[in-house]
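User: Thanks for the earlier help. One more: Acetyl-coenzyme A synthetase. Can you show the sequence and predicted structure together?

Assistant: Of course, both are below.
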Amino acid sequence: MSDNAVYPVSSEWANNAIIDAATYDEKYRRSIEDPEGFWREEAQRLDWIKPFTQVKGTSFDQQDFGIRWFWDGTLNLSANCLDRHLETHGNTPAIIWEPDDPTSRNRILTYNDLHEQVCRFANVLKANGVTKGERVTIYLPMIPEAAVAMLACARIGAAHSIVFAGFSPEALGGRIDDCASTIVITADEGLRGGKRIPLKANVDEALEHHARDVSRVIVVQHTGADIPMDESRDVWWHEAIAAGSHICEPEEINAEDPLFILYTSGSTGKPKGVLHTTGGYGVWCSMTHEYTFDYRPHADGSNQIYWCAADIGWVTGHSYVVYGPLANGGTSLMFEGVPNYPDFSRFWHIIDKYQVEIFYAAPTALRALMREGDDYVTRTSRKSLKVLGSVGEPINPEAWEWYYNVVGEKRCPIVDTWWQTETGGHMITPLPGATALKPGSASRPMFGVQPALVDPEKGTLLEGATEGALVILDSWPGQMRSIFGDHERFFQTYFSTYPGMYFTGDGCRRDEDGYYWITGRIDDVINVSGHRMGTAEVESALVLHPKVAEAAVVGMPHDVKGQGIYAYVTTVAGTDDSDELRRELVQWVRKEIGPIATPDVVQFAPGLPKTRSGKIMRRILRKIAENDVGNLGDTSTLADPGVVDDLLANRPHA
Ligand code: WT7
């Protein structure tokens, strides 16, 4: 393989795909030159209750800043994901659920089944006083009830706020408080790789210190664990849905009414509640799911089996486990477990078991499986596979080649989809029938997306083959609309760095063919196993420990996780900087935030490199963490250049 490997579109793909190269060019040009016309047509993929007459009302400029799409139209996204498919596809599987333990019973919910469950649960929400415009917190594992709860919220116009089931009680409590929800949906326990996760106990703990307004906790009985129920607050899901009606008419929702909030980490402060609305987001998920995965029924009308392995706690699960595939009447596989349980063949066994045609996963999982050797893959068939997807972080060419050659046996195009929680769905990605592939490049923009590169310091637009900060020049329907409760922070975070443009936080290179190569975050966000972690959040958690005086956290390269977490810690005077304390701090962070924030390295530092004005020079800390110590750059502006020598001498991994 050369560095410049290119994999052209096969003629079979070019001749049969929804979008071929010529169609891509034509549609892309139209989407930019005539956005009103393009989106007026594209939005017809959803059923509208009151058709919109307005299409695009957006400005990234400070004086008339605002983002709205289709804003005089009304619709219901739950009806778009369910009701409209019933007549023709009522008995088609909507969700195939594969449990953590392969010997346990799986579940297949047809569109009729899912519709009934959603209507029943929507009535439960109503009976518990949830009204349109309210927020509902969902803290569930990967079980069908998670999709049911989401769609039930959408049905009655309540916004869901899903908190990943791996987050700690502390993190959960903070998120419940921030969006002021009065109701939490959870399960007795989650199951991952045979391990039990005490979800209900976590909720109980979260509600002890936070979220005192929560008056109802609805609990799915999943593992059957014996858990305490607070009679005045807690109810069982199965009892509640059995008690009510199975009929629930979908509410009429304005296109710009909130659909959900999802918390994500930024470079400063607490996680932000990314707010998405209904119409534009629905159009974006449905469109990108169809085009990126070439998703449509087989010639005989049956569904392609589609599997996105992301958790519903992340935006990928929102857009590509639930809303995109179901809006398109698809069959979405939902997997409760992990790639290495009971063994490293699990993903490929599931693909064979259900004849999965489209598989979408994160590079971190692929890297972890790759190092176990090809045998776990090649002992399975995988003949059903047609398209492979990658998401969440840059995929290194080595992992790309392995995915392509070993998993896909050179038959399956890889769609390396670049996007963000904020963007709602795919922004830069190959299309299987249209785009020649280059391993490691997310390639070219989705319809309506205008990526550009700017000089990070000057903010000027850069032309041609070059590298810079990645911005988007104009709005697209799936764009987030606000940060919940802090619209000013929304503007400041994304539109003030480079005025008039949306700043992604990513660095990027563009090659001579106009392909985009994401190089990673250029702000203080690190990407651990495809999950975003704010260095500031980990620092805040560390300094809460009584023995920590100061902490600085940076990313470090990590073979499997992409990036790991490297923490420099200054302890309070008189502390014994022992290995025991190191372990204690690691546990402390896990407890404060959750296992995904586990520091990989803790280095005790008597002092941190600071400028004379007291600002920590992270550049130096990053270099040391990367083990790139030959070129630390200019250290003469440091208040005390001596601290660097100490940091170098005491590197735990040196
Ligand atoms: C950040 C967004 C995409 C949804 C899941 C993560 C990085 C994402 C890619 C990719 C290179 C990628 C970026 C981005 N990222 N996809 N295909 N190639 N980098 O969403 O948690 O909001 O994180 O993930 O750095 O800014 P998120």
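User: Great, one quick takeaway?

Assistant: The chain has three domains: 11-81+256-262+276-519, 119-251, 529-650.
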